[in-house]
Design brief:
Shape: globular
CATH topology: Inosine-uridine Nucleoside N-ribohydrolase, Chain A
Oligomer: single chain
CATH superfamily: Ribonucleoside hydrolase-like
Bound molecules: beta-D-ribofuranose, calcium ion
Distance between the termini: 25 Å
Order of helices and strands: EHEHEHHEHEHHEHHHHEEEEH
Number of strands: 10
Number of domains: 1
Helix content: 25-40%
Largest sheet: 8 strands, mixed
């Protein structure tokens, strides 16, 4: 049976690659894409999600718009990383496929309530606002979720937007706390693992020489995306965060991790959005997430190249 998934996302070049990986994977049935405000405001993330589907030739994909802002805090965005459009790099045409009318959190609720319990996976690539809003409106969805797989947080790597907070969790820490407390199985892919998935020159070149329209467009996205992180970290390439979520779903044996407790700081302004990951299990708090720290990065990029080659 195929993985039935909903992607919740704020594209973003790395979100775009994650969406493309899902669209290119025959083991996945993508039920819908939910856009959320994050890297750039919602009116851009929903358009970007549709642009990416059209790039892949998947015009029939359903894209929904959700939360325009985080639950309590004001929206902060990341144009300094992703550019003004959120998807700077390649020139992609304005999308023709329609935006669905339904509000994304309602789509999440309807999908989880109408399908058999334990069949739908939520793949979360941005701030967790849409998921939290769905959980608050209809708490009965929580035990029906097969698994939430989310990119966010950090442990030994610290943060990327504050010294201790990662962007997705920092933007809406209250939503993240709600999600981590909801009781559904969760896999977390924090900076500790995504900082090992680097877009080196040779990896980007593999995308550039593909004889389809997706490969060169991905190379152009990554050229733009990596410039900020290369300068920041002095590394060969930037971390390709969000595709790790889809890769973990498809091939978990590329990764290693451990079941631990994750709590989210929502009170201190200094450490707001920090994921307190109890890696050594010293808190006595109950396990609520599988936290991934290791990756076979060559295997990950091989799978990505192989899959993207199958798109238009
Ligand atoms: C996360 O923040 C965003 O900028 C990326 O798309 C990724 O989801 C990394 O911290
Ligand atoms: Ca993202």
């Amino acid at each position: 049976m195929k993985h039935q998934i909903i992607i919740d996302t704020d594209p973003g070049q790395d979100d775009a690659v994650a969406i493309l990986l899902a669209l290119a994977s025959p083991e996945i049935e993508l039920l819908g894409i939910c856009a959320v405000a994050g890297n750039v405001p919602l009116h851009l993330t929903e358009v970007n999600a549709r642009k990416v589907c059209e790039l892949a030739g998947k015009h029939e994909t359903k894209v929904y718009a959700g939360a325009i802002r985080p639950i309590f805090r004001s929206l902060i965005t990341a144009e300094h990383v992703h550019g003004k459009t959120g998807l700077d790099g390649p020139v992609l045409p304005e999308p023709k496929m329609p935006l669905q009318k339904q509000y994304a959190p309602d789509f999440i609720i309807d999908t989880l309530m109408s399908r058999p319990a334990g069949t739908v996976t939520l793949c979360c690539l941005g701030p967790l606002t849409n998921i939290a809003l769905a959980l608050v409106k209809e708490p009965r969805i929580a035990p029906r979720i097969k698994r939430i797989i989310a990119m966010g947080g950090g442990w030994s790597e610290g943060g990327n937007i504050t010294p201790v907070a990662e962007f997705n969790i920092y933007v809406d820490p209250h939503a993240a706390r709600l999600v981590f407390d909801c009781g559904a199985p969760i896999t977390l892919l924090p900076l500790d693992v995504t900082h090992q998935a680097l877009t080196t020159r040779s990896r980007i070149e593999k995308f550039r020489v593909m004889k389809n329209q997706t490969g060169p467009a991905v190379a152009a996205m990554l050229d733009f995306f990596e410039r900020f992180d290369v300068e920041k970290y002095g590394s060969d390439g930037g971390p390709l965060h969000d595709p790790c979520v889809i890769a973990w779903l498809l091939q978990p044996d590329l990764f290693t991790g451990k079941d631990v407790n994750v709590a989210v700081e929502c009170d201190s302004e200094l450490t707001m959005g920090q994921t307190v990951i109890d890696w050594w299990r010293v808190s006595g708090r109950e396990t609520n997430a599988h936290v991934v720290r290791g990756i076979n990065s060559d295997g990950f990029f091989e799978m990505l190249s192989e899959r993207l080659l199958s798109l238009s």
